[in-house]
Write a structure and sequence with these properties.
Helix content of chain A: 40-55%
Protein name (chains A, B): LacI family transcriptional regulator
Order of helices and strands of chain A: HHHHEHEHEEEHEHEHEHEHEHEE
Oligomer: homodimer
InterPro entries (chains A, B): HTH_LacI (IPR000843), LacI/GalR-like_sensor (IPR046335), Lambda_DNA-bd_dom_sf (IPR010982), MerR-type_HTH_dom (IPR000551), Peripla_BP_I (IPR028082)
Strand content of chain A: 15-25%
Largest sheet of chain A: 6 strands, parallel
Largest interface: A-B, 52 and 52 residues
CATH architecture of the largest domain in chain A: 3-Layer(aba) Sandwich
Strand order of the largest sheet of chain A: 2-1-3-4-5-11
CATH topology of the largest domain in chain A: Rossmann fold
Keywords (chains A, B): DNA-binding, Repressor, Transcription, Transcription regulation
Radius of gyration of chain A: 25 Å
Shape of chain A: elongated
GO molecular function (chains A, B): DNA-binding transcription factor activity; transcription cis-regulatory region binding
Number of strands of chain A: 12
CATH class of the largest domain in chain A: Alpha Beta
Distance between the termini of chain A: 72 Å
CATH superfamily of the largest domain in chain A: Response regulator
Chain lengths: 327, 327
């Protein structure tokens, strides 16, 4: 690999001059500038990131913590993050936490050891140790976080409850997301506000995880417990699809006997049959905006909003009954 | 951050001794060893990866190139990779290539600049420039690659064709994967061997991509072109699900009028209704085994097999007709 010393030698200038030129810091005369440019081109020089990282005390790497990469919501978030940070010249170190607090801490340590320029985290963990690294939280966000990109979970909960209660709901069951994830509470609060206002009876079913592995078993247990439900508000699309599958298996007609709404609008919600109605979260946009915010934060650029709330929308497909005009 | 110099001072030994201790290279006496251990513990010292990387000329990072993280096959591969490399103390830099050759080159350059210890690539690109980094290819593999983990695509193609032709197939359409992906050709060869042996008529439909974005439009175009098909061998599960959805929309019954088989066995294949029959590829295992091979390669450990072929299996669900015993 070509070194900065070789560039300086060929250009006939000092290493310090090449360094100033590369980092755009301090004065470099026009003649020197041209010589350095020519030498860099001739030698096909690309600065070693590790050497630069050690010198500048931060690298061109950004750490991303995800709760579960196998949940199809998060690859889309990662794609948004990656597109944005690439534009700004950064690359991604991935940490897939898998609901393990120790793993989360371990990753943050690894990020720090690699001098990452900043951290994006979609994990709502107990740890607040970011080792002084700039960070932006996304998706699963507490109120006391300074930099965050998230969606309006309360309103999403309202939309889901409105959608089912507009459509002859007499026995609603709400599948509540994991207790330790703040968005679960907000969505539930939105659900309950609407159902209570409209005097619609409901029951709750608590789930422990958003993960895929347990979806089918959960769906079976769920339908065993609530054989007379006519409406399900599911905690996410994976669980909604698992419930749909199990419902059809049991010979219960969707949406006539049981209507179902999910949350997320993953690509597969549209490909299911019947198509899954759901609350759309802009997964790619969450990742992209969070990455943009982090890059601005790192580079001390102007930040108009430190907390960005993105809208959610109701997507109607075949898993909901026809809307009653006079309800 | 604590430095190696501070550890040496507290321990009352030389920096070189601490370095030998940390790298497990050269002699360190018992007394010194104990002093260094105590100092490391007292100072909560963790070696800066960047400094170590510069010194050792390789980092504890591994680069992973994926064709499309939004295709649900690849997050599972990434999960397998991550689980294995974490066990061995490495972390992951992710590169999502998105079918862009320039982006692939750019990522390999970034990996090299960060002194990654090795590269895993599921991208079948035109570039062979790994900048001297150890690498293992996975999933999309050419014959001339030394280190590779892949599945038996030819046999997968045979299994899919056998499955449909065992079940009253009189008009088969094969959806062929992208031309530039070697596995597409191998699967097609497997399909054709079986169909030709059994004298079953077929037509081909060429697709340009495995990506999600175009699946629904492709499915519409596909069914417009082959209104009389009774069996579809799809290029992957995403396309199979898109065809299933469009088929049901058109009032064609699955599997009575049209039976469909996918490829991959993504989690969603099981949750679809009717359940999607498919050829299962062990995505997680591909990632895990490839990472294991790369770690052994990097660390000069014994390698029994440089090219590992993992088995594929036929998964029967409701999207295929009943098997005819006498066919």
């Amino acid at each position: 690999m070509v070194t900065i010393k070789e560039v300086a030698e060929l250009a006939g200038v000092s290493v310090a001059t090449v360094s100033r030129f590369m980092n755009n810091s301090g004065y470099v005369g026009k003649a020197s500038r041209e010589k350095v440019e020519r030498a860099i081109k001739l030698l096909d020089f690309s600065p070693n990131e590790v050497a630069r990282s050690l010198y500048q005390k931060k690298s061109k790497l950004i750490g991303l913590l995800l709760p579960d990469i196998a949940n199809p919501f998060f690859p889309l978030v990662a794609k948004g993050v990656e597109d944005k940070i690439n534009e700004s010249g950064y690359s991604l170190i991935l940490g897939n936490v898998q609901g393990d607090v120790e793993k989360e801490k371990e990753y943050l340590k690894i990020f720090a050891q690699n001098n990452v320029a900043g951290v994006l985290s979609a994990v709502h963990g107990s740890t607040k140790e970011f080792h002084g690294m700039p960070f932006v939280l996304l998706d699963r966000v507490n109120e006391d976080i300074e930099f965050a990109v998230y969606t309006d979970n309360f309103h999403g909960g309202e939309l889901a409850a409105q959608a089912v209660s507009d459509r002859q709901a007499k026995h609603v069951v709400i599948m509540v997301g994991p207790k330790d994830v703040p968005s679960s509470h907000e969505r539930l609060a939105g659900n309950l506000k609407v159902l209570n206002e409209r005097n619609i009876p409901y029951q709750l079913y608590q789930t422990d995880t958003f993960q895929f592995d347990s979806a089918e078993k959960t769906a079976q247990h769920f339908l065993d417990q609530f054989p007379h439900a006519d409406s399900v508000i599911a905690s996410n699309d994976v669980y909604a699809l698992a419930v749909m599958k199990e419902t059809v298996k049991r010979g219960i007609r969707i949406p006539e006997e049981l209507q179902i709404i999910g949350y997320d609008d993953m690509p597969f919600a549209a490909l299911a049959f019947p198509g899954l109605s759901t609350i759309a979260q802009p997964a790619y946009e969450i990742g992209y905006q969070a990455a943009d915010l982090l890059c601005r934060h790192i580079e001390n650029k102007i930040i108009l909003k430190k907390r960005i709330q993105l809208p959610v929308t109701l997507i109607i497909r075949e898993s909901l009954r026809e809307k009653m005009e006079n309800e």
